[in-house]
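User: Can you predict the 3D structure for this chain?
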Amino acid sequence: MTETETTRYTADVVALTPDCSVLLIERDWPPFEGAWALPGGHRDLGESSREAAARELAEETGVHVATDDLREIGTWDQPGRDPRGRYSTDAYLAVVPAGTRIVAGDDARTARWWPLDALPERLAFDHADILRAATTS
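Assistant: Here is the predicted structure, written as structure tokens:
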């Protein structure tokens, strides 16, 4: 008998400003509680990953972007990327004006703009890989 694996689908956003800052949230729950991460989260039933990305960005940071303004970076679905089980995330890039106001909400302990050359030492999950892909493409 073949065992099947349940995959959960998420979406993450790399929100960048023209002056090279990235928006990160401090996670308020496990896994990686207290660690910095890209805004993102689970897709709702019937929701596209692009819609989920825009919704999660707004819920976690107060930053609103149109789904058409999200540029796809790629999909990260390596086994083990999330200690809770199998997760596949679609990552998107959003360029927003410098000084965009942020308000931590929903699942974020806090939200903050970080200069790309002075990021936290460690990001949650594989978000450092996603950020690297977004800023080198």
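The mean pLDDT is 95. The radius of gyration is 14 Å.
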